[in-house]
Amino acid sequence: MKTLASVGLGLLMTATMAAAQADEVKIGMITTLSGGGSHLGVDVRDGFMLAIERSGRDNVRVLVQDDANRPDLARSLSNEFMQRDNVDILTGIIFSNLAMAVVPAAVRQGTFYISPNAGPSDLAGRMCHENYFNAAYQNDNLHGAMGAYMREQGFERPIILAPNYPAGTDALAGFKHLYEGEVVGEIYTQMGQTDYAAEIAQIRASDADSLFFFLPGGMGISFMKQWENSGVELPVFGAAFSFDETIIKAVGSAAIGAMNTSLWAYDLDNEANHAFVEGFREAYNRMPTLYAAQGYDTANLILSALEKAHPSEQDAFREALREADFDSVRGEFRFGPNHHPIQNIYVREVVEGDDGQPTNRLIGIAVENIQDIYHEQCQM
Amino acid sequence: MMLFIEQLINGLQLGTMLFLMASGLTLVFGVMGLINLAHGSFYMVGAYATALATATTGSFLVGLASGIAVAAAVGALVELIVIRRLYHRPHLDQVLATFALILIFSEGTRWLFGSSPLWLNPPSQLAGSVTLPGGLRYPIYRLVIIAVGITVAVGMYLLITRTRLGMRIRAGESDREMIGALGVNIARLYTLVFALGAALAGLAGAMVGALQSVQVGMGEPVLILAFVVIVIGGIGSIKGALYGAILVGVVDTLGRVFLPAFFRQFMSPSEAAGVGSAIAAMLIYIMMAAILAFKPKGLFAANE
Amino acid sequence: MNKSDTSTLAPQPGLPTPAASWHDRKGLVQIGLLAVLLLAPLAAYFLGHIYYVNLASRITLIAMAAVGLNLAIGYGGMVSFGHAAYFGLGGYIAGISAYHAFDFTPVIGWPLTVPGSDSMLAIWLAAIVLCGLLALAIGAISLRTTGVYFIMITLAFAQMMYYFANSWPTYGGEDGLPIFLRNSLPLVDTNDALTFFLICFGGLVLSLALTARIMKSRFGAALTMARLNDTRLATAGIAPYPVRLVAFVISAMITGLAGALYADLNGFVSPTMLSWHMSGELMVIVILGGVGRLYGPLAGALLFVMMEMLLGGLTEYWQLFLGLVLLFVVLFAKHGVMGWLAGRERHD
C-alpha cells in the first residue's frame, strides 16, 4: 500500500516537472509499433524522425507511443498526451478505426491533429474540423485512381475484393466511383483472414478479365502467395497498401507484374525525394516505403508551419499549415478546402530489382490532382 | 458444381492443418490433463525457424526439418521449465500461465526478428497447379498439405496403437497414477509427448507459413479454431480431433462462400456480404454450442 | 467427480475466518486501496492533472469488470474465459444507444419502437438487463459442462459475439463506434472528469458491497459449497446448477455495467472490447489481485494499469515483461497482491 501510494505520488511529480519551456513544441505521436500492421507504424515514425533530425531544430520534442493497433489504447494514449504532457500537436495514427476513436475528440479539445496515413471519409466530410489536417491521402484516393486507370486501360469485367470492414467497403465504393462501369463481382473477406482459397475459387469461377483487391498488411501477403499458385491468370491491380516494399519482399516473385496506385514512388524524380530516399537508406539501412514518405512529409509540413507560428497561436499556425509551404517528396502538394491533399496519384508496377528482389517501378500518372468526393459535405 | 467441389477440397485442406494443431493439443490434454494456450506459439516458432533456415540454406526441406526440430526443442524446453509445474494445478492457473507464455513468445519474437513478416515460399517443385480428374485446376502445394495431414493422421494412429510409446500414452490417458506404478518414467514421457505436440504444431506452422505469411501472432486465430476442434471432437481424443478438424474446416469454408451467396438472393450485394459473412464467421461457434448442448463432452469423449 | 474439477482454486473464500489478527490488516489494506483510488484522483483534479483522474476512472472500471468476473471465477469456481462478451455488450449498448440518440433514429423500429437514448440511467438498465439475459442463455448451455469444456465454451460464445460485432457493418464493424458526446445524467455534468470518476467509483463500491452481501447470504454459502463439493450441496437438498447459473448471471451484469461505463469513459466502443485478449486480461487482473479475494480485482487492476504505464514508457515490448510477471505470479505467488498485502485468506 505504501508502495502504491508512492508510485502514485511519483507519477504526479513527473507530470508536474513536465511543464515545458515556453517556446518548446511538443508533438505526440501515437502509432502502431506492435501487433498486426506494425511495419507501417515503424516506417511512419522513422520517416518522421528523419525529417525532424534533419531540420536541426532543438526545440521540437517528439513523444512516441505504441497503440498496438487497439482503438481503446490509442484513445487513452491521446488523453495522456493532451492532459498530462500538454502536447501541441498529435500525429502518427495508421489505421482508420483508431483515427476515428481519437481525432474527433482531440481536435475539439483544441489540439492539432496531422494525419500521416489514415484518411477515413467521415473526417474528410461531415466530421471535418479546422484543427484536422491529412498530409497523406483520403482513403478513397488510391482505389478511385486505380478504377480510373483500369477503365482507361480497357478492362471491362473487373472482379473486386476487400475485407468486410468500413475501410474495405469504402475502398470498393471508391473504386467503383471512378471506374464507372459494371463490375462482375464484389467479394468481401473477413478482417485478418489468412486463407483465401475459397475466394480464389470464386474468382476462378467468374468470367472476370481483371482483379482489383484491397488487403492491407499481412492479408495481402497471404493472398498474393496463394494467388500465384492457384493457376488463375488474371492481371492484378491494387492500391500501394498491398504492395509496399516490405510486403512485396515477403510475397516474393508472386508480386511481379502487379500494378498499384500510390501517391509516392521512390523513383519519383524530384530533389526532395532524392534527398529523402538517400537519407532514409543511410539512416536506417533499408528502402523507404510510402508510409515512411508520408511520415517524412508530415514532419516537414509541421516544420514549415512552425517557421511561421507557434501552435499556441492557433489561428496563425492553422493558416501556416493550410499553405503547405514545404518541398513534398511527392512533388506538388496542396490542401483542398477540407484540409485533405489534392495530389497526383501514380501507377507503379512490381518488377524484379537489381538484387533479384521485387521492387516497385514508376509507370506514370493514374489521375492528376485527384480530390476526394467528401469535401462537398465538409462545413468548416 | 465445380466450385462446390473446389471449396470442399479447400475445406479438407484447412481441416488437415487444423488436425495437426489439434492433435498435439488434445494429446497433451489427454495424457497430462493440461490445457495449453501457448500451443499457437509453437506454430509460430515452427514457421519462423523454417523461414530462417530456408533463407540460410536455400532448401525448403532442410528448413522444414529444422522448423520441426526447433519447435520440438522449444516445446521440450518449455515443458521442463514451466509446464511441468502446472500439471497438478487448477485449469485456471494453466490458462493464465500459458497465456503468459503467449505474451512472452509473441513479444520475444518481435524483439528478436522485428515486426515485419518473414519471407517463406513453398519449394519451386510444388509451385503452380495441376488439373485434377474432372478438369478442376488446384494448387499442388495445397494437395501436398492434405497429403501431409493424412500421413500424420495415419502415423499418429500407428504410433498410438502399435508402439511402446503409444502404449504408454494410452495408459497415461486412462490412468495417470497407474503408469507411474508400472515403472514408466513419467517425467520423460510427458516431456516427449509435449515435444511431439509442439513438433506437430511447428509442422503446421511451417506448411501454412509458406502458404500465407510468417509473422508474430499468426498462431492465435489457428489456436482458437483448434480449440473449437478439440472441444467438438472431445478433448483428449485423437479420433475426435480428426473428425472435428475436418468438420470445422469444411463448415467454415463452405459457410464463408455460400452464406453470402444465399443472402444475395434477397439483399443487395454489400448487405448480403455483411449479413452473410457475419453469420458465416459465427457458424462454427454456433455449431460447437449446438453440439455441446447435446453432448457436453464432445462427439468422441475420451477418458471420462 | 473428475479430478480436474475438485481442485478448482487454491484460496477459498467465504469460509468463517479463524483469527482476528490478520483480519485487521486485511481491513486496513482494503480501506487503504479504496482511499488511494479515491484520493489520488481528487488530488490530481485539484492540481489540474485531468489525465490522472481519467486514469483512475479506467482503473476503477476495469476493477469493476473484474469484480464481476471474480464472482464467477473466485467465488463460484466457474472459470469463464468469455467475460469480454458482457463487457463488450455493455459497451455496445452505450454506443448504439448514443448513436441512435445522436441520429434521432430508433434502435428498433418494429414490432415496438425503441428510441435511442443518451441517458446513462436508461443505458445502465439496458446493459444490466441485456447482459443478464445473454449470460442466462450462455450460462444455461455452458454450465452443463465442467472443467476445460466450460472454459472453452465460454470462450467460444465470446468469440461468436466478437466475430458478429466485427462483421456487422451497421455499427462500424471492425472500426468500432465512436460516442461523440458522453451520455448524460440528470443534475450532474458527466463530461467533468471528476464527476465521471465519482460515478465509476460509486459503481465499483456498489459492486463490491453487492458481492460481499451475496457471499454473506445463504445463497453465497450455497455457491461456495457448489464450488467446493457439489455432491454435498445436492445432499443438502439444493441443486447446484441454478445456484451457479444465478451467480453467473449476476457476475455478467456487473461486468456489463462496467462495460457500459467504460465505453462512455473512452467515448468509443469497438470489437476489441469483445476479444479473447480482453477476457484474458480480466482473468489476469483477477489472478494478479488474488482469486476470490473481495478486493483482489481492485489490487489487480491497479497493478495491471501501473505496469502498462511504467513498462510501456520504458520499452515497446512491455507485454513481454507483463508475461514474465504473470508467469511468476501464477507459478510462485498464487495468492496475488492481496495475499501478499493482507495475508492469506485461509489455511491451505
Written overview of the protein:
The complex is a heterotrimer of chains A (380), B (304) and C (348). Chain A is of the alpha/beta class and 380 residues long. Chain A is built from 13 helices and 13 strands. Chain A has helices at residues 2-17, 38-55, 71-84, 96-108, 121-124, 140-152, 166-179, 197-205, 218-228, 245-251, 271-284, 290-306, 314-323, and strands at 25-31, 60-66, 89-91, 112-115, 132-134, 158-163, 185-189, 210-213, 236-239, 259-262, 334-335, 341-352, 358-370. Chain B is 75% helix and 2% strand. Chain B is built from eleven helices and two strands. Chain B is globular and about 65 Å long. Chain C has one domain. In chain C, the strands form two sheets. A two-stranded antiparallel sheet of chain C has the order 1-2. The two termini of chain C are 21 Å apart. Chain C is built from 14 helices and four strands. Helices cover 70% and strands 3% of the residues of chain C. The A-B interface holds A 33-36, 38-39, 42, 164, 169, 172, 186-190, 192, 194-195, 197-199, 201-202, 204-205, 218, 221-222, 225-226, 228-231, 246-247, 249-250, 252-254 and B 2-3, 6-7, 10, 13-14, 107, 110, 115-119, 121-122, 127-129, 137-142, 208, 210-213, 215-218, 221, 253, 256-257, 260, 269-270, 273-274, 277, 281.
Secondary-structure map with pairings?
The complex is a heterotrimer of chains A (380), B (304) and C (348).
Chain A: H1 2-17, E1 25-31, H2 38-55, E2 60-66, H3 71-84, E3 89-91, H4 96-108, E4 112-115, H5 121-124, E5 132-134, H6 140-152, E6 158-163, H7 166-179, E7 185-189, H8 197-205, E8 210-213, H9 218-228, E9 236-239, H10 245-251, E10 259-262, H11 271-284, H12 290-306, H13 314-323, E11 334-335, E12 341-352, E13 358-370
Parallel strand pairs in A: 1-2, 1-3, 3-4, 4-5, 6-7, 6-8, 8-9, 9-10
Antiparallel strand pairs in A: 10-12, 11-12, 12-13
Helix pairs in contact in A: 2-12, 3-4, 6-7, 9-10, 12-13
Chain B: H1 2-32, H2 39-57, H3 60-81, H4 91-113, E1 129-131, E2 137-139, H5 140-162, H6 164-174, H7 176-181, H8 186-211, H9 219-233, H10 238-264, H11 269-294
Antiparallel strand pairs in B: 1-2
Helix pairs in contact in B: 1-5, 1-8, 1-9, 1-10, 2-3, 2-8, 2-9, 3-8, 5-6, 9-10, 9-11, 10-11
Chain C: H1 3-6, H2 21-47, H3 50-75, H4 84-103, E1 106-108, E2 114-115, H5 120-142, H6 147-167, E3 177-178, H7 193-216, H8 218-228, H9 230-235, H10 240-266, E4 268-269, H11 276-289, H12 296-314, H13 318-332, H14 336-342
Antiparallel strand pairs in C: 1-2, 3-4
Helix pairs in contact in C: 2-3, 2-7, 3-7, 3-10, 3-11, 3-12, 4-5, 4-6, 4-10, 5-10, 7-8, 7-10, 8-10, 11-12, 12-13
